[in-house]
Design goal:
By secondary structure, the chain is an alpha+beta fold. It has a 6-stranded mixed beta sheet.
Length: about 325
């Protein structure tokens, strides 16, 4: 390996993981983030010889990565949650899987991540970001998440401080209108370790027993349940109960507790073969489950490293 390549690898090593999380927040997709980071690091390597220490390596890398994300956003529609669509009738047949529009994906959990890092990959936060114009999204992430000062952020985004502050003001207001009052990290903290263990145990027990009443006891009245990339979703406790009784609990399940996007989640294994059917990520409010998102795409499961067959079932 050349000395230049070694110097480049050392320069980017400390930033690679956070660059990937930044690209995920910009794009709402682990797959797209993989591609954006790869493109950004290739561009950074090509330009490394010309980097003369103006500014920091971190700012330089984020500038390149943000540009890569903006190019992706010019080529495809924003990622969305299923709940952006009209709610479904639980008595109607479930819709077929739709690959378009492109749906938001969960992010792999990092047990070593700080609180702020976990909050910044929560589904509600990343979904709200996807509603912002690309320039506002970039401005908010570079300042409020990455912590660059206004002058640094403006230089990074190649705009004026006045334009940055204007975009930032609009982005903050739009985000406040679309995100819950408390992050999932705050909700989990309020539950405490014992409360989380009790909720997880009760959720698994109810699901595995096909106990609709037991599940209902854990749900908020306005709970939402969705299954991307199937566009059908169910709004409210009664609709969710009817759907689970008629559809979900018609087959046996085994659940394994895990985490994704900084939230409680469950790998759901289905049928006699105990094959992975869904990654169900839950959102909490006041100790109740207010949202369940069952990600069905096997490619999403693979990107999060979830076993395809229940461990020990082979």
């Amino acid at each position: 390996m050349s000395a230049d390549r070694e110097a480049f690898d050392r320069a980017v090593a400390a930033h690679r993981a956070e660059l990937h999380a930044h690209c995920y927040r910009m794009l709402g997709s682990v797959h797209d983030a993989d591609d954006a980071v790869q493109d950004a690091l290739l561009a950074a390597w090509r330009g490394f010889a010309g980097f003369t220490g103006r500014g920091t390596v971190r700012a330089w890398l984020y500038q390149i990565a943000t540009r890569a994300c903006l190019r992706v956003l010019e080529q495809r529609p924003r990622r969305r949650l299923i709940a952006d669509e009209p709610a479904s009738d639980p008595r109607a047949p479930v819709a077929a899987m739709h690959r378009e529009p492109v749906w938001l994906e969960p992010y792999p959990d990092d047990p070593a991540a700080q609180l702020a890092q976990r909050e910044a990959v929560e589904l509600a936060f990343v979904a709200a970001l996807q509603h912002l114009p690309a320039n506002q999204r970039a401005a908010l992430l570079v300042t409020d998440v990455l912590g660059f000062a206004a002058s640094e952020a403006a230089a990074l985004l190649e705009t004026s401080v006045a334009s940055l502050n204007s975009a930032l003001q609009r982005a903050r207001k739009a985000l406040a209108d679309r995100t819950p009052a408390h992050s999932q990290q705050a909700e989990l903290g309020a539950l405490g370790d014992a409360g989380q263990r009790a909720l997880v145990a009760a959720f698994i027990a109810a699901w595995q027993r096909a106990d609709v009443d037991g599940l209902l006891a854990l749900l908020a009245r306005d709970v939402k349940f969705s299954m991307p990339p199937i566009p059908s979703w169910y709004d409210g406790r009664d609709a969710v109960a009817a759907f689970f009784a008629a559809q979900v609990f018609a087959t046996p399940w085994r659940l394994i507790a895990t985490r994704a996007s900084g939230q409680l989640a469950f790998a759901c294994y289905q049928g006699p073969a105990l094959a992975l059917g869904a990654l169900n990520v839950i959102g909490l409010r006041g100790g109740e489950i207010v949202e369940m998102t069952g990600f069905l795409d096997p490619a999403t499961h693979a990107r999060l490293g979830i076993e395809r067959i229940l461990p020990g079932a082979r």
